[in-house]
Amino acid sequence: MSKNAAFKDDVVEALSKAKILGVRAGDEHRYTGVWVVVVEGRVFARSWNDKPTGWFRAFRKEPSGMIQVGEREIPVRGKPVRSARIRDAVTAAFGEKYPTKGSRKWVEGFAEPDRAINTLEFVPR
Question: How much of the chain is helix, strand and coil, in % rounded to 5?
């Protein structure tokens, strides 16, 4: 695991294997299922559409929230990703983790600049 990774090894491993991650900003929202990737030991998700009522904007407004992987609920903060290098690495990671023909449309869509900008890193709080 990368020395700058904040999650414990077992959490990073579970997240790297998980196809869907539950995310929830604040305490009030329900969990939303999103794709998750691990890059350099760090945990990322990307919003398909930046709706005013969507999970991405909810985390922008209230960075504290929870992620759910399997039976685990983990308190997190969502941090917007400003680094183009990291966003590009996240795009590549989506292609590697979700290689099926059925996933191709979504992987290609996530690579579009208007969507790549909607990348969030989750860190423990």
Answer: 35, 30, 35
Please give the Cα distance from 114 to 20 (Å, whole number): 22
Every domain of the chain and the residues it spans = 9-124
* 15-59 pLDDT per residue, tens: 999 999 999 999 877 899 999 999 999 999 999 988 999 999 999
CATH 3.30.160.340 fits 9-124, yes or no: no
Residues with Cβ within 8 Å of 51's Cβ and at least 6 positions away in sequence, in order, are 57
User: Do 95 and 107 meet the contact criterion of CB atoms below 8 Å apart?
Assistant: yes
Q: Please, which residues have CB within 8 angstroms of residue 100's CB and are 6 or more apart in sequence? A: none
Q: pLDDT, tens digit, for every residue of 79-93?
A: 999 999 999 999 999
pTM (2 d.p.): 0.92
